[in-house]
Amino acid sequence: MANDLTLLGIESSCDDTAAAVLCGVPGAARVLSSVVMGQTDLHAAFGGVVPEIAARAHAERVDIAVKQALTQAKMAFADLDAIAVTAGPGLIGGVMSGVMCAKGLAAGTGLPLVGVNHLAGHALTPRLTDGVAFPYLMLLVSGGHCQFLLVRGPRDFTRLGGTIDDAPGEAFDKTARLLGLPQPGGPSVEAEAQTGDPKRFRFPRPLLDRPGCDFSFSGLKTALLRARDQIVADKGGLTVQDRADLCAGFQTAVTDVIARKTERALTMYLAEHPANPTLAVAGGVAANTAIRAGLETVCAQNGTVFTAPPLALCTDNAAMIAYAGLERFALGEYDDMTLAARPRWPLDSSAAPMLGSGKKGAKA
Ligand code: KG4
Ligand code: ZN
User: Fold this and answer.
1) 207-225, pLDDT tens digit by residue?
2) Which atom of ligand 1 is nearest to the CA of 118?
């Protein structure tokens, strides 16, 4: 049995400054602490994440987050085996804040530095939370990303499909903005949708008529904008019920598209790996109850095990970065002081670039 490894993880690629300490081996690790310092209040007035404000806030807070994570885990630097840090993709100023902090700590303590791809952090989370064995199918749905990944190993990811324009979280955020709801939009739209009639507005289900499991969400957002403007033109404004109905219609369309595309991705995946029928979901949008329920149904119909990490590990956090770092470090891999912060860093470098980046939004 391999010895336990203890890692500090640092995450600062978007609008959460996070640090965590984790201990264990690949497939069996436990989170000793996970500190997430959000910045929602700093960006609220701007309707989205402002990169420069985010970068400054990360630079000011990242060492505080690290200190808190170590204290909560009752650990000192001397107890650690390595320091893992998100080296991309993300808002470059934020990523640099984290990487510079990690480099400083590594230089000061002599600990190895492990650069982690933020997306690998999300994609490997089911191994941290549920010890899921390779291979498995991963659906990553967040504010900046949307893709199906075939995960065969800690550095073996094949993209089966993804968005050609917006990410679903971005669509939720924009919908909230169009309806005057607070950010982040996902939870606001979900809360409104609870009292809405999902059948009043029939929004499009983009790309369902095409084969494959690519997504498109920008047309859906435009349809919502048109429906909103039509109500305003007819009645002079939106009632509480109008808003709830728009949210319910939008959420139902997104849920439907995600469920149907997941069915296709599962068929592709199961043809190759019939002995490992597992779908894992990650990213902030996985917090949505309706979307989770849709995925659960598809999995049940396809004899597939469905795994969704607890909410705190679905959204951005540093425990997933420490864990992805642990998987790399256990293979003997680490970086030196030339580790670069990368704004773009596809997990599957062999996949053809998407038509759209899928990373155009505030959280890209
Ligand atoms: O993974 P995450 O924390 O950050 C990155 O984008 O990397 O995801 C945040 C995104 C936001 O767009 C937010 O609106 C969305 O996840 N989100 C949700 C829900 N909670 C968060 N979308 C739909 N329903 C939710 N309940
Ligand atoms: Zn993320």
Assistant:
1) 888 889 999 998 999 999 9
2) 7
